Sequence to fold (446 residues):
Amino acid sequence: MAIWNRAIETLPRDRLRALQGERLRAAIAHAHERVPFYRRRLAAAGVAPGDIRGLDDLGRLPFTTKADLRDHYPFGLFAVPRAEVVRIHASSGTRGKLTVVGYTTGDLAVWGEVVARAISLAGGGPGDIIHNAYGYGLFTGGLGLQLGAEALGATVVPMSGGNTPRQAMLIRDFGARVLCCTPSYALTIAEEFERQGIDPRDLPLAYGIFGAEPWSDALRAEIERRLGLVATDIYGLSEVIGPGVANECIEAKDGLHIAEDHFYPEVVDPDTGAPLPPGAWGELVFTSLTKEAFPNIRYRTGDITTLLEEPCACGRTSRRMARLRGRHDDMLIVRGVNVYPSEVEAVLLALEEIAPFYQIVLARDGALDTLEVQAEVTEEFRAACRAADGGLDPDEPRVRALRARIGDQLRSRLGLGATVTLLAPNTLTRIEVGKAVRVVDKRSSV
Ligand code: DLL
Fold:
């Protein structure tokens, strides 16, 4: 497969490190000179910009957090005059205020470049028809993929989310080769093809670029099977630039190649902030090396991963990040036990009777947390149970046995008992726009 920017993406590591060091010095000087917040932070840490001579000095710099971004809402961390900001995006954040980010013309060029690399990593190339069903608007998904596809010289179909029947129709009619959307929406599109009696394997569709939310390898296998394409994981966050910070290569699908000539990654202990060695899992932190409007100094993403340094089969020299297990703040604490929703997904999707649609509901019974896992069964399983009304009889022996089996597996994987509720196919609401909501936590409102 073609490497989009061969000179940079295969740069020997010592030369890449030298480039990063040089860019880091300029990036710190820029943030310090232009953003009062960073000036104050560095002063409080007793660091002058000139003290940062290279990557080895990075650990002396203070972290930046999402709370810092919110405290400077909306434009307080911009490093250029507002009139030089040609684009605004924002992430919706779960609590209150949006996190607002800005881009200069130069930043948009960098973004287009890294997303073009991502699409090439995923198998796409110039001339391809790219169906882009990420949301357009303040969310970075739609416009980010758009920019990269244009930089690559592909033909973009700017669909945004929603109206799934029309999405399926246009993927077929226009002959899309690449599909971009969240993994949960990819499944909804697959269901729609099935409903319309279309086999996507008969279409030119070959590659999927899925991300913006956690998804397991089991879900990947399911999407690849049902859509007849090769699916890779794309990662990014608006604070750092948007999608395109990292993407898996189709050759290895073994970690996501980070565009580390622009975004320098570290992994730190989420509790203490201490840097962790390669291979250890912890919180991902980024320092921007080239951003103009919205520089980041050691920005704590909240995402949990590990950095992979071994050479990759595809020939690129960048470090890779393992697929995310979830966010630090996604981790649920149920009766004192730490539970990642991705662990629940792994149990469910390994079972052939279960469709990849589920929800985790947390509630409280007196002082005790309760964990309920609701999962849809497949059409085949429902048909085999032969309930009169097309639903699912919870007392049917097969349903009971499956419920018990899932309960046992959850207990052994999570170390925690859960109530399992099996649902008929198509019971849970399908999200057509935005990110999947897998967890409903009713504990604070009970
Ligand atoms: O989700 C950017 C994006 C758009 C990425 C399209 C990929 C594709 P935000 O809305 O700012 O930006 O949310 C960023 O989403 O910190 C992760 O917690 C999560 N996330 C993003 N990509 C992945 C992924 C976009 N591949 C937050 N796997 C991040 C798991 C992801 N989680």
Summary: The mean pLDDT is 94. DSSP finds twelve helices and 21 strands in the chain. Residues 1-328 form a domain with the Rossmann fold fold (CATH 3.40.50.12780). The longest helix spans residues 13-34.
